[in-house]
Amino acid sequence: MNRIISFVKEWMLVIAMLTGVLLYAVYHELPVIHHLGPDVLRAVKFVQPVLIFVMLFLSFCRIAPKDLRLHRWQFLLLLIQGLSFILLALPVVWAASHSGAFASFITSARIPLEAAMLCLICPTATACAVVVRKLGGDMAQCVTYTILINIMVAILVPAVIPFLYRDGGISFMAAFLTIMAKVFPLLILPCLAAWLVRFLLPRFHAFLTGLTDLAFYIWAVSLTLAIMMSTRAIYHFGGSLWLLAAIAAASLLSCIFQFWAGRKIGRRYGKEEEITMGQSLGQKNTVFAIWMGYTFMEPIVSVAGGFYSIWHNLYNSWQLHRQLHQKT
After folding, report:
1. DSSP letter string, 54-101
2. All structural domains of the chain
3. What is the pTM of this model?
């Protein structure tokens, strides 16, 4: 029995991912339960933010306000995400008003390019701090970067998207307020709630900080739901298999690049920073990415968030597996 429990703990993320895929596959193959789909979708959309809120709340309970400090590397990562997003947007914007072979090529590759843009600008996952703590990184620095990148996304995406979709009627202020309305409840409120508990209810706070692995298990449940929704997006993909493969490749290359760049730069600062920077840049809020794709881009681009969810969680599973066996 102990071996089974140990196996489940070690491969929790892989099990959660497979469960998410199987749940949607079973639903899809059983028409008799299709009438439950709208209710299940509403339930998932309600439960998932609640799980993320609780997970972030527990993570913030372990971080004192004074621990949230600015570091030079955070601005380096912001520069990488911001510049890569803009550099990929430039040829797309240019091709829209030019002709010729190169412009035609860029136009034909627009969807994969936008998929890569979505993966590169997507904010750090709210669960990143949980993984960073498991791997031996700095939770406080990760949380600080998560706040910074969400602020940058709220400013940069509304500034760039109108150039990509000139006929979309998207204004900077409307897009900014839409993103902030999505970010604030699931990022700032858990932080404020955790700090109120820290100062007003110290005994309860001590109890919460003693629940060391609860946030990790909540993340596993949230991951199951996220993968289920990602599988749904892939199932309902309306394009060709070649386009699906191109989006999958774009998201995979974006994932590899960001984990590599984060860890490469982090090695200059030390082992703890290497872990923290790799996760901060590579682990994404893919639910947010899917939402951004649907809201501001071609809906088909949102599938990139589903693929990225698979890639970065597979990598995280391998990292956690390696970390466990290094300790033993």
Report:
1. HHHHHHHHTS-GGG----HHHHHHHHHHHHHHHHHHHHHHHHTT--SH
2. 38-327 (1.20.1530.20)
3. 0.83
